[in-house]
Please model this.
Amino acid sequence: MKLDNMFKKMKPAASARGSIASGKPEVPEGLLKRCNKCRGVIIAEEVEEQYYICPKCGGYFHVPSNRRISMIADPGTFAEWDEEMPVSNPLQFRGYPEKLAQLREKTGLKEAVVTGECQIDGNRIAIAVCDGRFLMASMGETVGEKLTRGIERATKAQIPIVIFACSGGAIMPEGIVSLMQMAKVSAALRRHSDAGLLYISVLTDPTMGGVTASFAMQGDVILAEPGALIGFAGPRVIEQTIRQKLPKGFQSAEFLLKHGFLDAIVERQEMKRELGKLLKMHGENKGVGALWHGTDPSGDGVAVKPEEQTETADAWQRVQRSRSADRPVGMDYIKALFTDFIELHGDRQFGDDAAIRGGIAYFHGQPVTVIAQQKGSTTKENIVCNFGMPKPEGYRKALRLMQQAEKFHRPVICFVDTPGAFCGMEAEERGQGEAIARNLFVLSGLRTPVLTVITGEGGSGGALALAVADEVWMLENSVYSILSPEGFASILWKDVSRAKEAANVMRMTAQDLKKQGIIERVFPEGAHYSRQQMKPVTDLLDTAMQQFLQEQSRQTDEIRLERRYARFRKF
Model:
């Protein structure tokens, strides 16, 4: 719905200073209007100055493209591209050029998308903003051509592109030519991606039809505004087709986030800040030589000896400690070791798994991708994250982030703590085995450094899916095994009560695995290791991780991949 139609003119109140009989309102016509969401009386100028958000209910109104650009771009930096485009009427549809001419006069727009370049927090980008006032920003030949030209210019200039999408879909009077724009814009984005460049897609209300089925969902990072309607087929079409009433919130941004298709929902007033952070992080890695810019920690004369143990314990004791309720969980390590963590969500196929958390962060000023298997610190949190047992969508989210890291030359750091992959019926239906297998396949050839730290339980293939790495480290009381001691005892001896015996037989402790050459390093924990007492461990990890990245920065991709292959080939 257009902004002009979102508000309705109000009749003057009886207390107005102007005479009711004279028909003269108290305020200029159009100043006082009504929000079509909460029906509250608002001042139009105030809404326009406050990000086009209703001050009463917080509802979002549609934003004209020029105002959107002014909200996002650094002042004075926007320069428009391809402002003048020929009128397109590929099917020679009667009356169509006249309709376009009327829209141009009414809206002041030349077409449904504005393209150009600008800066966001000093970062040079290409930008495209769809404007729903012009044919609901439906994608015809001219829109597709402007977008394609903008993407091509961004590729040639080697700069990122940010596209603010909204659309009603394809333009019917342009028929199959409108459909071809989906493929044309997608092909241009593929070339932009192959050049190693960043594309951020921002979905606004509404983003529907062929736009959703093409460029809107092809971003390296996909953001959305709260409450935006996003989908392929419109709600009315779906209801008419299936003869069912759709649930509340269906096809909303929140619905898509839950189902794994968005990285984040960002409030409009926070959008420029979030875009600036993402652009800065992605602008700081330009190749393998840029993998590590920090100081070499080995040069300070302090030797790190992670293999020193603080006490002796049998295997079963270490199993119990790896499962301790007050043991640090994945996000504890992310908060302790990294700064400016931006969490990214979803597998782009089914959902967002809380058992795996991941995103982009800084490690000593260097952007890295960090992924952690997540247990809960409370029973409620454990239920949310399925007690740290990832589902297929969790592994596919992790894989998506790893492949994104490869594209932008970021090292990948994984924290493993899982009893194993979830083995429920729904996991099998969604391809648990395939998801893990795909991770192993892709990780073996990932052309960026990969480090895995096992911080608690390392259960079977559920752990290995994040551990096909250049090096694997373990904390002193973590474990890593083919399955749990209980499962081992049950399968081999048909007696789960022999789990303690099984733990010793399985050689699953960090100390055993270091001797076998399965892992590279063991880090002492100290007595009574907990969230409150994790700093000595994270200090050791911090220094060792700096050394690892320093060493990796000296290697070519070919040497790194050959060594990773040899690491597993020896077993």
User: Anything to note?
Assistant: The two ends are 62 Å apart (CA to CA). Confidence is low (pLDDT under 50) at residues 1-29, 299-304. The longest strand covers residues 199-208. DSSP finds 22 helices and 18 strands in the chain.
